[in-house]
Amino acid sequence: MKVVAKRPESLKDNRFHYCPGCTHGIIHRLVAECLDELSLRESAIGICPVGCAVLAYDYFNCDMLEAAHGRAPAIATGIKRLLPDKTVFTYQGDGDLASIGMGEIIHAALRGEKITVIFVNNAIYGMTGGQMAPTTLLGQVTTTSPYGRKKEWEGYPAKMAELLAQSEGSAYICRSSVHNPANILKTKKAIMKALKIQQAGLGFSMVEILSTCPTNWGLGPLEALEWLEYNMIPYYPLGELKVKEVE
Amino acid sequence: MEKILMKGNEALAEGAIIAGCKAFFGYPITPSSEIAEYMARKFPKIDGVFVQAESELAAINMVYGGAATGHRVMTASSGPGISLKQEGISFIAEAELPCLIVNISRGGPGLGGIQPAQSDYFQATRGGGHGDYRLIVLAPSGVQEMMDFAIESFDLADRYRTPVMIMAEGTLGQMMEPIIVREPVTQFYEKPWATNGCQGRQPNIVNTLHLSADYLEERNHHLQRKYDDIVSREKRAESYLTEDADMVVVAFGLMARIAKRAVMEARKTGIKVGLIRPITLWPFPDTEIIKTAQTAKRFLSVEISMGQMIEDIRLAVAGRVPVDFFGRIGVTPNPEEIFRAIMQIAEREGM
Q1: B204 at A interface, C-beta within 8 A
Q2: For residue A77, which residues of chain B lie inside 8 Å, CB to CB?
Q3: What's A42's DSSP letter?
């Protein structure tokens, strides 16, 4: 018998707590596959956010820390500066990274911290029950923008990849999506590239990954994938925004 | 042994380096900034890490990450900055990460002023952030102790896996005194819990989230047992002429040295006054207070605040002996003022 698919070694044998149709599970697996393929599991140190991925330390089979809300890039800075040979990554949602952690992420990028940020953008607060995120689209209904987000009232959604690509300290900034197999593969390539750029010591790296939240969007899993494709991608275009090549 | 002249903040920073501190993460604030400046000059030359963080929030979280690697790390700030650090300090206490946090304190509330003060006593000794936790808090009274306590703080932090705070009035940070520079620390603790890559072992997790009610309670009992252990072993105080004292002045930090002068002057007039100087603010040296309360008739708490430590003295004496207060803020009381306060009480009470 031939093994054609197995759990990556960088994932523990624990059942994910994520809702049906949520794409966190796919993204966890992609990160784990990349750590495996680059033989980084034993040198990797990951930092979880506050949000739906708060329990990621139960899933990634490497050294892990749990951060206060938004502070993961600061914790990653402390670790990486003291252990420059290790691979340090944060796994953060949009409330964590783009709202309460806006200061930490921008300054980590400005300092060119040699860390990799996996930024999961699902345009809503998941864990607290569907409140407006800084990435919530105009017109999108959430429990704290019950009449739809209006630019006059709540302002504009944050384009983090574009914002961080402006930093001289950023070596790799990419936005990808996991709404279909082709884009899942592209996302994996982006994560690989980000980790390699960290290994090469070129600077800050981030992959922003468009993700679904069927529960709080009030959609079925398949409808959620379609909603992402037709609503999120036009505002959050996919592709690499900044690439410092590995020499 | 040869003595050299050093500024308090620099002596503390050098003490941290002597203790093997490998990283400083901080944000400038008067009157603590010389500590950051000293580290910024020194660390690049000795393979250490200095990061000027974008905020106090970021600085304390860099400390969280740095301490989790198993290295000795620290931050320093003053009142308003220490307030910002409270979120991180609560996480660090629960994650049981050893580190040194320094408060070169100034007067509040709000932005307050930059004059020396002791009005962060409550914040330092009650935990400061959310949840049931404590910090070991040391209060140096001179520049030599700024260095010595920095060295000792890292040992206490590692031994108990807990954040340690040094709280010193701004004056101590700014003033210069001749001191003996200590020998570098050579013995360190094993840290098998560190998140430094899981090569050859199971992954380590540094975490403060406990969703199970039972486990949360268990964690709190675990911390409490540790704090009980610290209380039983680490209370420290210095007593001066308390054996026959009718009145006992209690003061900490540089304030204690100033108060001692007033006590000496009062003794010259025949009044039996003594002094207790708490060295650990937490655990509070109540044993010394309780012992003295068996013979003393009154206590006088002298603080650069509106009266904070006085609550701990009152808790210790438990109503058996009255406790008076003399304090100022913005201005450090001078020996003459304290002397007058002592004489006034002595006269009123017929001592």
Answers
A1: yes
A2: 51, 58, 62, 65
A3: G
pTM: 0.97
Q: What is the pLDDT of residue A245?
A: 76
Please provide residue A34's backbone torsions phi and psi, each rounded to the nearest 5 degrees: -65, -45
What pLDDT shows up at residue A229?
98
pLDDT tens track for A30-89: 999 999 999 999 999 999 999 999 999 999 999 999 999 999 999 999 999 999 999 999
Range of the domain at B310: 237-348
Instruction: Give the pLDDT band of residue B1 (cuts 50, 70, 90).
Output: confident
When CB atoms are compared, the residue of B54, B91, B203 closest to A63 is B203
Q: Is residue B192 less than 8 Å (CB to CB) from chain A?
A: no
Calculate how close chain A gets to B60, using CA atoms only, in Å. 8
Contact A43 B22 (CB under 8 A): no
Q: Which chain A residues are closer than 8 Å to B63 by Cβ?
A: 78
How many CB contacts within 8 angstroms connect chain A with chain B? 124
Question: For chain A, which residues score pLDDT lower than 50?
Answer: none
Is A9 among the domain residues?
no
B61 and A74 within 8 Å at the Cβ level: the answer is yes
Residue A17 lies in a domain: no
Chain A CB contacts of B49 under 8 Å are 81-82
Asked if residue B194 belongs to a domain, the reply is: no
C-beta separation of B207 from B235 below 8 A? no
pLDDT higher than threshold 70 for residue B218: yes
C-alpha distances in Å from residue A35, one per residue of A85, A197, A237, B37: 15, 13, 26, 39
Range of the domain at A49: 24-243
B183 and B281 inside one domain: no
Q: Indicate the number of domains in chain A.
A: 1
pLDDT more than 90, % of chain B:
99
